[in-house]
Structures are given as structure tokens and as C-alpha cells.
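can u pls check wat happens w/ S-adenosylmethionine
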Amino acid sequence: MKRWKYYNSFKYYRAVIKEDEYAFWKEQRDREAQNLYKDRSTRICEDEYEESDEEEEEEAVRANSSRHEESDSENGEDSDQENQENDLGGNRDDHQEDEPDADQDDEVALTDLPNAIVISTVPIPQIPRSLKVVETLVSEVPRSCQEALRAQQHGSLALPRRCPGIPTRKFSSADNETHGSRLDDWPIQVVLENPTNPDNWFVFFEGWASPDNCEEDELRGEALEVGKMRRNFLNVIEAAEDDSIKELVKQQRNIRDAPKFFLDYLDLSYFHSEIHQEYGLGTIIYISLFDTRPPQLKYTTVNVMEAEIYHHLRRAYPNKLFDELVRINRRRRIRHDLTITGGCENEGSCVCNKLFTILYGITGAQNLQTLPNGLIDLKDFNREIQRVAIECSDRCKCSLNCPRRRLQQPMSFPVIVFYEGDKGFGLRAGRRARPGEFLGTYTGIMKKDNEEDNQSYVAGLGIVSKNLVIDALNVGNVFRFAAHCCDPSAVFVEVHSRRNESDLLVPMIAVMAIKNIEFGDEITISYYLKDVLENIPDDQETIDCLCKSPLCFGKLPA
Ligand SMILES: C[S@@+](CC[C@H](N)C(=O)[O-])C[C@H]1O[C@@H](n2cnc3c(N)ncnc32)[C@H](O)[C@@H]1O
């Protein structure tokens, strides 16, 4: 992705929200607040798996398809040895089979979670509490997934997996006698529709390789909701596509006919969703109708940086306290437009728009304003102009529930990472999104720009931090899957947001809907400005754009 360039316009706007929009938004927020929970440990995954050949993979998937098949234990033993050699991750050794730590059951407030990770082998003096320092990025199955960890330690079925942070071993029928007695206590990992009986579901328990059957009224909680979301999404795909796709959807619904990496996709969905839940973020479902390899993503909910970047951000001008900035700028007579109100619940003491004027007014960027319902005001929005959203900090004296702290609050927007054919994986909405709604943030490695690097997953910061980019090639979150569309449904927004002024200001890129996005619709962004797409030089290497929009420009710079 290339960075935005050439912005020259600057607009302010206000709007009145409608009652029904407010009710919708409030309901969302209440639901999201309830979703916040528990200590989950994995954020970053380190890939330690070696290649294994296709045959072994097929073998393992076949073995996996039924816990009750005799062949399970044999396959398990074979690949078990290999897995022990390959599994260099810390989980198996670190984890006891005993009950979870008492600590792990304690609720962790969103405010206690880090807003960025710094990689450093030496201690960093006076580092703010809002940052987590690690020596290396490690791969772990979330600590909250105790049964998955137990299976990782004792399961007899080894899986030749390459997805970072996903267990490489499960329980199979061979483990029934020793590990199968706690059925009633097991957490449900996923429920899948039974295509022959709508009231019946296939249930995969966490840590186990094959499903049991359950009637719908026996199931409670979130797993059933996620199962229904998956079913509804397949209905959308089936209704929209041609006959060959319909056939693939049918296979996807029938566990025994499902594509080769089906179980890997189920695991990615579950463990990445678990990581999300710790941060109050939404469910993720990964689906491919084809035999495509699952993405090798090291999952992170927050940006990651080397110590050098941390020091750079600490010294950066926008990191200064508001009062200091005012002192520095007193002589410059910066005028602040008092008509802009900005959505803070404490309008009188909110400094966000003053901050914008001091820090970014000169850039010509749009200063996005929040409506009282938490949506961004899109009146007069122009996606060809770079924009920034300033969120409140403790300096504004508002509460953590202030609408202008949207990215500091739970954001449980659910998404489906769906294999879109020649475009690769893309992103679909797991519920309706409103124009002006933040869907999440684009995370990855924050680093200095280097034109030599693969630019496919690089998003540039041009306002809050001019020289930095976020690279999600190997480390990132679901928003790195968003495809390009010449008439996109969402945009990137640079965000200046920190809970407290004492926190480091870590620039962020948020993804914001600019249209109504319905359940199952693709979430797309335009990787390029219109001007760039209209004027691609003849000698520039290009690829065909597959966005299918009536406004498509046809080609994308390669
Ligand atoms: C940021 S990645 C998107 C995720 C990627 N599809 C994947 O599977 O990981 C960008 C890459 O996706 C593909 N892509 C995205 N949008 C496209 C489009 N409209 N037409 C063609 N290829 C597209 C291109 O290969 C591009 O380099």
C-alpha cells in the first residue's frame, strides 16, 4: 500500500444525529461493554514450525475428521515424534496440567492492557506502564485456553501446522480413556451447523480433534452465536455466487467433504478470537472454500516496535503535554476555531481540537469530529484528503466512556476473513456497520519506511508521525486482509489517541466505514488516491484490479 500524498484542503463540519442512529449505537456500545473480559496472554506469535510434506498434512486432516476412527491413534503416534522435534515454543514446557492460575481468572480492565509492545533486550528506564517490553516476540496458545494447552501437552494427535500460535497437537479417540472423562467441563471451541438437521450442531470441544453432536437447546453462550454467524455468512455467499461456488459452500458445510485445511481455519478463528476478546475486540472467523493454505500471520492487537522507534516517538513533538505545546506556541498566535465542538462529553475542557490546530493544522488534514453517538461525522468527508482523528485524554477531564475515546474502548466488530479467489484473502463484515463507525485498528510492526521492503502490507503514517509506517506483512491483525477497491467501503484514518497524557503517544491507523456495510459485505479500502490510479505511467508495472466496482480504474501499481 502506498502512502497518501498531496493534501491541500481543510474543512470543518457539524451534523445532527438521528434518534434511531443513537439508539443503535448505544445498544452496540452496551453490548460491547459486557463483552470485555478475562486475562488472555497471547498477543504475538512466533513461527517455529518446519515444513512438512503434503502427504503428512492430508493424513493428519483425514485422521482428524473423526475421533472414533481407528486410524487416529496410529497417525498421531507417527507425527507425534516429529511434532516434539518441531515444537520449540514455550507452551508445553511452561504449562502445568493443573488448574489455571488464580490470576488468570481475574478480570483485566482494558485500561491495564498495553497499547503497544516494544522489543528490547536491554531494560528501558522509565518506560510508561502503557507499554509492554519483550525481548522477542513469542508464540503461544492463549493461556486462557487451558484444555487446548492440556492437549498440546498430552494429546496423541499431532498436526503438521505452520500457523504461529496455533496448537500442534490435539486429543483424539486414543486419549478418550485418559483424558476424556471431563466432557461436561470442556469449553466449546466451535459449533458447526449440521446440514441435515437445522436444530442439531456439530460441537468441537477445545483441545479435541473431532466433533460430537448436540441439540441446539443444549448449547449456550457465544459459541452458538458464532456458529450461526458462520452459517449466515455461508448463506450470503451461496446466494450471491455461481453454481460452482454453491457446490463449494455445500462442501464447507459438510465436515467430511470440507477442504484440506478446514481444521486449521477453525483453529485460527478460535485462537485469534480468544486473543481479541482480551482486548474487548470482536470475533474472527476464517473461511476458505478452497484448498488454500491458511495465512501465516503472527497476531497482534497492538503495534509492535523496536526500542529505537520507542525513543523516536518519545522525543516526537506530538508526544509533548498539551500545556507545554501551548507555552511553546504562545508567541505564534495560533488561532483555534471555537465553533468546532467535537463530541467530547466535557466540551468545556476538551483540548482535542486545540491540539489539532497546534500540531496538525498546518498539514491541511481534515480534523475528524466525533458525534455524540461515537460515530465520526462524515458530512463533507472527502476521502482524497488526508485526515486525522484526535481522541480525548485525561487532559480533557472526560470519563473513559466519552464518545471521543472510541479507540480506547471495546470494539467488538466481528469480521470474516474470507478467501476471495485471485485477490487472496479479504475481509467481510460480521455485522452491519454505519458510515463513520470505527471498525478497528490496523496493527503491525511500526518502523521507518524502507522502499526496499515488500510494500504490500505497508500503511504509511503521514501526519501524526511523518516518517513511520506500519508493516503487517508478518505481524499484524485482520485489517491487513482488507482488499483494495476503487470505490471502497472504508478508509484508513490516522489517530492521535492516548488515555493519559503520561502515556506514550503511539500513532495509530484506524479503519473507518464510510458507507453502510451490511453483514457479509466486503470491507475494502482504496490503497491509492484517485489521482494516482488515474495517472499510472505507461512504464509502471501494474496488476489487474479485481475489485469489480463499476468505478474500477482497471489497474493497480504493482
Ligand atoms: C494488503 S494485501 C490484502 C490481503 C491479501 N489478499 C492476502 O491474502 O493476504 C494486498 C494484496 O492483496 C491483493 N489485492 C488486494 N486487492 C486487490 C484488488 N482489488 N485486485 C487485485 N489484487 C488485490 C494484491 O495481491 C495485493 O498485493
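Residues 295, 423-425, 456-457, 480-481, 483-484, 543, 545-547, 556 surround S-adenosylmethionine (CB under 6 Å).
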